[in-house]
Amino acid sequence: MSEATTIINPPKLGIFTKLAYATSGIPVMIEQRGISAFLLIFYNQVIGLPAHMVAFVLMISSIFDALCDPAVGQWTDNAESRFGRRHPFIYIAIVPFAVGYFLLWVPPVGWSDFSTAVYLLMTLLFLRTFSTFFELPSSALLPELTRDYDERTTIVSLRTMFSIVGGMVMTLLAYKVFLKENPDGTGGILAHDGYFSYGLTAALVMAVVMLFSSVSTHHRIPYLSKPPKRKVGIKIILRELRETISNRSFVALLAVGMLMSTANGARLALELYFGLYFWELTQNQLSILLIAGLVGIVPGAALATWVSSKIGKRRLVGMALIGGIAGNVGPVLLRLVGVMPENGSGILFSILLVDVTITFCFATMTSIMITSMMNDVVEDVEVKTGRRSEGVLLAADSLFRKMVASIGIFVSGVMLTVIDFPEHAERGGVAPDVIAKLAYGYVPITIFYISAFFLLSFYQIDRKSHERNLEILQKRAEGNKA
User: Fold this and answer.
1) What is the sign, positive or negative, of the torsion defined by CA atoms of 332, 336, 342, 344?
2) The domain that contains 416 carries what CATH number?
3) 255: phi > 0 → left, psi -120 to 50 → alpha, else beta; which?
4) Span 54-85, pLDDT tens digits
5) DSSP 442-475
6) First to last CA, the chain
7) What is the pLDDT of residues 418-472, one digit of tens each?
8) Residue 313 falls inside a structural domain
9) pTM greater than 0.70
10) What value does the CA radius of gyration of the chain take, rounded to a whole number of Å?
11) How many domains does the chain have?
12) Alpha helix segments (H runs only) across 270-345
């Protein structure tokens, strides 16, 4: 067993530092939300690249991104510099990450499908490399900023709320400002105009927020954990990776995350297709639904810490998963059995408003709790291995989630091709049988959510076991000092 990293009792976190750190979730959520909401429909319906080609490129880039995560995670866990383990990677990533996101929305005009696909792939590989350089070290800071069971959940709640709100606000700006639909029906999401301004604005916002969050946590570097000085060969690295990711609670949470990521990847890739073609909503209505989602985030983030302190993190995730399943699939199932009102009716839109609000509330709770539970694994692993491995744990979690999410996206793209979903389609102009096939292909994602619910029972860390882990680590640290 390797010598444990030194445990230091840092000064109490101030509210400004908590809030500043919480903003670090915004840039990656802008990236993820933009890619999931617009990329498939932009390259398919606007640029004219076949859906299966777009989905295949997304899958390849996601797998590449996922495979980079363990290497970056191990690298940051063992890095040594006067700026600590995490901040050097964060600073390096800022400009390339922002530039990569902007380039995504300005593909060359007039190129062949193959050349456009290659451009998309190269841009995504560049973007996601530096996304990993920022997000992994940034996420790995949290277990070091605080070890308190409830304070950790509070900070996760803030970071989750900031990230979801930031991503959705940028999407809302796309709907209402950059990709605004004109009264005569021109412009909008399905027009090329506006994507340049959207990409540039989003990139600038991402860069500013990344710089702010990293500079604002810079003063905590002296109090963060430091790795023991040692020479590490490839055999040691592989052995430590195996020891780290074999933790039972981590494996359970990893499986839950993989199942949810598969379902979410498919759902998000089809989100605009359902909004525009299945429900035949206007862009203004899509914007209002986004606002409803923002409204749902607030109680989800506000209640997460309080409810989990009463019933436990695992139980809250289970309850939120059940609510999320009903919200995601329920309206589509009701339409298939002929219960939902007709498209264009005020009643239909009101139902969707309520559904989106409640679903986002449950989704926010789920995201907060799973992130907090994953951070609690850090000390459980440290007790058993003697190493703090935030980077490796988060990297392994990210690796498998990204790989299966890419499968969900790929399946969605292939499904669009199989059902002969037309390119450059008009709202209300897609054949009813194609719309029905779209719905029947979407409903089975429920299986993934249900499976995730049952696998939660294998996660074993609760408040008592976490506090016991902290006591063991504190005694170990005092023994090392003696």
Assistant:
1) positive
2) 1.20.1250.20
3) alpha
4) 888 888 887 777 677 666 666 666 666 667 67
5) HGGGHHHHHHHHHHGGG----HHHHHHHHHHHHH
6) 19
7) 888 887 788 888 899 999 999 998 888 888 889 999 999 898 888 888 888 888 8
8) yes
9) no
10) 22
11) 1
12) 271-273, 283-311, 313-336
